[in-house]
Amino acid sequence: MNRPFNFSAGPAAMPQEVLTEAAAEMLDWHGSGMGVMEMSHRGKEFIAIYEQAQADLRELLAVPDNFKILFMQGGGLAENAIVPLNISRAGTVDFVVTGSWSQKSQLEARKYCTVNVAASSAPNGHTTLPEPASWQLSQDASYVQVCTNETIHGVEYHALPDLKVLGSNAPLVIDFSSHVASRPVDWSRVGLAFGGAQKNLGPAGLTLVVVREDLLGHALAVCPSAFDYKTVADHQSMYNTPPTYAIYIAGLVFQWLKRQGGMTAMETRNRAKAALLYDAIDNSQLYLNKVAANCRSRMNVPFFLRDESLNETFLTGARTRGLLQLKGHKSVGGMRASIYNAIPIEGVQALVDYLREFEKTQA
Ligand SMILES: *Cc1c(COP(=O)(O)O)cnc(C)c1O
């Protein structure tokens, strides 16, 4: 079946193989007589699905043994509260503000701890990233939080900062919601990583947290039990009912990613896809991407038509050609193409062909 290419920022396109597999197993999972939605989370069938998903993700992302993988709920925005509830110790926390998502994170954390904005790219409209060497880190911060891919502004740290080199012993917390599984992760630089599944892992409703074990067990007294990482870890993410169907689908995505060759293969592909699209934008008279070249996101590509009166015509033409959900986020306007793992290079090529053709019809 030839489906349109869907450039949604999230919930986003899924690998078609995964959808086909899930459809085939909808009424009867592996001869159990049950669909996955209908299974007890404590039954042997679902436990097998859960354990496979955990093992596959650990292998894919090369998560070291001293990190727990937690399957939670509440999304990235809930983590903006859950992280400080668990690891701020009501002390001081450093934030780097690089766009809408890190801005939301630091505002939410203020409810639970003292926040220091160590650096901000707000003055230039979040079109560059503050160099780690310029960050004004606090003495004795409980942690330093960075959004490593800003989904709305389209900026991405292509390497994780090394806090030790910056003279800080604080754990690094990363919001990797919108580029998780797009490239390998250097866990030696990370204390905790979180992300909603609905960008690059699976359906909405599942939140991934990967946390170093020494950070468990320090939650504030007011932290809800269901959000205490230690409680969640001690119960294998089943203190309360986990989002079972979303875990199952994410598990199918993990297997799909393994078949694609894992993280190094995905990174190579994602680099090629991003280069194809940015080159087309940069080499045109009509389209514009405002982000500095060295920090452009390989997942979320915001762009503008220099003549904004053409926006609606552009979007209608795109839909007609099977190029869906290209409208930009309302806070920045313009267009945005999210080119997560599930978008093949053919999808990016189809978009680039349309960009060129549309520009020609306007000349
Ligand atoms: C989408 C997104 C969020 C918010 O996720 P929700 O699941 O809606 O809470 C947070 N951070 C980043 C970087 C995102 O892309």
Concise structural overview:
The chain has 9 helices and 14 strands. The chain has 363 residues and is of the alpha/beta class.
- In CATH terms, the superfamily of the largest domain is Type I PLP-dependent aspartate aminotransferase-like (Major domain)
Largest sheet features: 7 strands, mixed
End-to-end C-alpha gap: 35 Å
CATH architecture label name of the largest domain:
3-Layer(aba) Sandwich
- List the domain count as a whole number: 2
Quaternary organisation of the protein chains: single chain
Tell me the fraction of residues in β-strands, as a range: 15-25%
Structural class: alpha/beta
CATH class of the largest domain: Alpha Beta
Q: How would you describe the overall organization of this protein?
A:
The protein starts with a strand and ends with a helix. The longest helix is centred in the C-terminal third of the chain and has 21 residues, at 262-282. Helix content is 33%, strand content 16%. The strands form four sheets. The protein has a seven-stranded mixed beta sheet with strand order 2-10-9-8-5-3-4. A three-stranded antiparallel beta sheet has the order 11-12-14, with helices on one face. The protein has a two-stranded parallel sheet with strand order 1-13. Strand 3, helix 4 (100-109) and strand 4 form a beta-alpha-beta unit. The protein has 363 residues and is of the alpha/beta class. The mean pLDDT is 97. Helix 1 (16-24) packs across helix 6. It has two domains: 17-258, Type I PLP-dependent aspartate aminotransferase-like (Major domain) (Aspartate Aminotransferase, domain 2, 3-Layer(aba) Sandwich); 262-361, Aspartate Aminotransferase, domain 1 (Alpha-Beta Complex). The chain has helices at 16-24, 44-60, 75-87, 100-109, 229-234, 244-260, 262-282, 311-320, 345-362, and strands spanning 5-6, 67-72, 92-97, 114-120, 143-147, 149-150, 155-156, 172-175, 192-196, 207-212, 287-288, 300-305, 323-324, 335-338. Bound molecules: pyridoxal-5'-phosphate. Pyridoxal-5'-phosphate binds next to helix 3.
